[in-house]
Amino acid sequence: MARSEGKKTVPPGEAPRVIDQGSVWILVAAPSIWAAHFLLSYWVAAIWCAKLGRGTALAEPRWIIAALGALCIAVIAGLAALAIRRYGGVFVIFEEITESSERARDKFIGHVALLLCVLSAVAILFTVIPGMVLGQC
Amino acid sequence: MTEEIDLSKLPPAEPYDKARDEAQRARLMKVWQTPTGWRRISAVNNSSVGKWYLLTSFAFFAFAGFLALLMRAQLAVPNNDLLSQSLYNQLFTLHGTAMMFLFAVPIFEAVAILILPEILGARDLPFPRLSAFGYWCFLIGGIFVCGSVFFGVAPDGGWFMYAPLSSNPDYSGLGADIWLLGLSFIEVSSIAAAVELIVGVLKSRPPGMRLNLVPLYCWYVLVVAGMILFAFPPLIAGDLLLEMERAFGWAFFDPDRGGDPLLWQHLFWIFGHPEVYIIFLPSIALIATILPTFAGRPMVGHSWIVLSAVGVAFLSFGLWVHHMFTTGLPEISLSFFSAASEAVAVPTGIQIFCFIATMLVSKVRRSVPMLFAGGALAIFVFGGLTGVMVALVPFDWQAHDSYFVVAHLHYTLIGGMLFPLFAGVHYWYPFVTQKKMSDKLGRWSFWLMFGGFNLAFLPMHWTGVMGMPRRVWTYDVTDGWAVLNMVSTVGAFIFAAGFVVLAVNVLWPRGKAPLVERNLWNAGTMEWSAEVPDKPWGVRSIPYIHTRYPLWEQKELLGEMDRGEWFLPDAEEGKRELIITDILDARPLYVQRVGGPSYLTLGSAFCLGAVFILATFHLWTLTLLFGAGFVGFTLWWLWTGTSEIPEKPEKEAGRGLVLPTYAQGNNAPGWWAVFITMTGDMTAFMGLVFSYFFYWTALPNFLPDAAKLPGFGWLVIGLALLLAGWITALLARERLAGGGTAQAMALLIAGVPLAALGIGAWCWAAWSAGLNPTETSFDATVWVLILWMGLHLLLDAVMRLYVAARIWRGRCTPRYRADSANLTLFTHFLALTAVVIFALLALFPMLMGVV
Description:
CATH superfamily of the domain at 688-848 in chain B: Cytochrome c oxidase, subunit III, four-helix bundle
Strand content of chain B: under 5%
GO cellular component, one term (chain B): plasma membrane
Pfam family, one (chain B): COX1
Distance between the termini of chain A: 65 Å
Oligomer: heterodimer
Number of strands of chain A: 0
Number of strands of chain B: 4
Number of domains of chain A: 1
EC number (chain B): 7.1.1.9
Order of helices and strands of chain B: HHHHHHHHHHHHHHHHHEEHHEEHHHHH
Membrane topology (chain B): Multi-pass membrane protein
Keywords (chain B): Cell membrane, Copper, Electron transport, Heme, Iron, Membrane, Metal-binding, Plasmid, Respiratory chain, Translocase, Transmembrane, Transmembrane helix, Transport
Structural class of chain B: mainly alpha
Number of helices of chain B: 24
Largest sheet of chain B: 2 strands, antiparallel
CATH architecture of the domain at 688-848 in chain B: Up-down Bundle
Radius of gyration of chain B: 28 Å
Structural class of chain A: mainly alpha
Radius of gyration of chain A: 22 Å
Largest interface: A-B, 65 and 66 residues
Distance between the termini of chain B: 53 Å
CATH topology of the domain at 688-848 in chain B: Four Helix Bundle (Hemerythrin (Met), subunit A)
CATH class of the domain at 688-848 in chain B: Mainly Alpha
Shape of chain B: globular
């Protein structure tokens, strides 16, 4: 707000505006889900193999890993929908979101978040593959 | 919803007045002047500290490179006896250690400290004294670690210091202690820099620079500083365990006592692999900044590069076990890490494709920086391809610990890190010195290095496939590696010659050479807005930025800045001032005052350095004395230089904008610094938690019988006391805000005995159950968790007394109470730590049916 009739311009209030408005958490949400899935898969398999010994069949962990993967990808799909709907994220290659406005900043975050959703989903699929292929510890 | 200030609708600047401009410049000059002569060491300006950091890192690089040449000389011919085996072991350990810890990571910090504030159109980073402190820590620690080789006691267990070679003092002498303590000390400076850079990018942007307008370099800095925060602390936890075993015989890595050497490998590589990307990303960031300048257009796929930086940062934490493919872990575990290692190639590739696309759609100007950038991409892509090969488990089993891996890692690091850095040196040299480097020498150094590098390292792929193991001191002529090794040695010396040419080009005195013109490369980023000759204040006035490449797209900007038409054009109060903005849209929030030149940081770093060095030699009394000195200097520094109550609550920042001069809670950079530091601290703690569960997974009977567990009742009492201590901090904050200063002080002080009793109850719980840390890994783990809590409570006590004293002396008041808010934030983390430890010691054994 510009100075009008000699009034001084005072900056906006105190809130750090990270979680509440136009939040940036969506940027780290999808890769964090990848990390969670990755670590859980690793722990499930590691504890299973350590406690039951080498050569144990991996039937149960396999389905835990796959089910976790499906769940995580579903959540990521939800995040992607959010990135498109709330932020206005688009999947383009030549992005030119260079306008100086709150809307453009949101669109930029939505765009990057959407790309990260795709990357994270692909990385989760990568993690599920060995779970499907390997039969025993 | 907060109110938006539309910075584009601010009233116009007042008409130019030459007398006013000169008066303002004189005042700014007085405030920001760098001390001269011997007093220069007290300087804290980012331009001084950044330059020292850069030159020191390059000095360590030259030193480590010289060690590499010695090794290559030794390997030039079969059965060579130029060096003894023991010296050779020290050389390769120190070469790797110095390149990683004393060059690759610090140079990122050096470059960032030097150019980040200018790219952000800021006067300095938000904590200039912290940068200076970090630099001095780095210098002292680096000299200590490197100097050891002249006394024949350099670390010799490899740069990864694997246990049990490193944990048993019979196998490894003083060198391992020097490595552990010296590098822990240097990690302090890395974490200090990370805090500084994260807050710098998030809070010190110029007004108007929204997230979608942030330059790529700043994104990379943010991402890498964040990675340091999660990658370095696990190694600090590992260092703690290893040093406790070496110094006091605690049982962490000794299999006879329920320890496991593999735990060290996990903790080391949880640090070690992200480390590779911590090195790589900031250098790629330099290319991402240089390339648009010479392409003459914005980067293609700006947000794709942001995506890949963030993506790589995450995925790189899922790769650590690919250094451990031959340790006998279950194949299913190996394949997860193999999959992640392949996945990380996707975002890495995206960045390279964006660079290539930018070059394709434009006409690239030829220049020495672009020559280095091109060479970097060629070498790095080659190294990346062999990386995809060794990420496959069966291939890795063949290539592991052979020269193939040596070739691979040097291709990625020299292509991904060193060549981009040299491109940056040529590009930013005029920015730092206002003189230009010789193009002819630049081309000579490039071709010598590019040719020499490939001649040295390409043959190593074959030497490796032919079976030559890494780290061997010599070999026999019948092995058949002689010719290839000779070629590698010749290449290494040509490479070194190229570096000498570069060093001469950089260090050549150019006193009489003409100054360069302003923005000589016609770049779009803000650092080239600096006036020629340079001024110590960074920017004449802090501009309003509303484009990605301000110098290209805001035509009037330079003139407006020079005439002092933007924010904070003056220093009326004689204080160094910055504008702090908000994270999303860079709205101006308040004017931050930062400290000027000081010897306190130097004293603080010196004492801390002495603590680590004396501890290496187990001189405990002196260690404690210097520890007290460190605490004293640091408190003095904080007391006189932070959270100062301003002489007026708000000030005119220019263009009719009035900003507060004090901030507290999550508006203040100090609060963010505490938050970020404690996040790193929690990561180190998670390293200890990981160790607990690792033992539980790997050992069949890690948890002892119920009689040998710490007493449940005492653990509960201890937790209750610790949480009560936390509540006193919360109440103190409330009381202070409500005006009750005496009550606030009483509550803060009351927390100290509560904490002492709480940790005492825990110690008694472990002691009365007969837990002896030198006997089993369980006992040692319990005690190290209690020790961790105890050390933090000690810090807590110091901070409480400090804040109480600040309240008493009227430096922390009901209105200006940033210190109290920061302390409370610290105690939140402490409470969380206490609850987690309680869960591990009391609840988990119960859950597993032990009690």
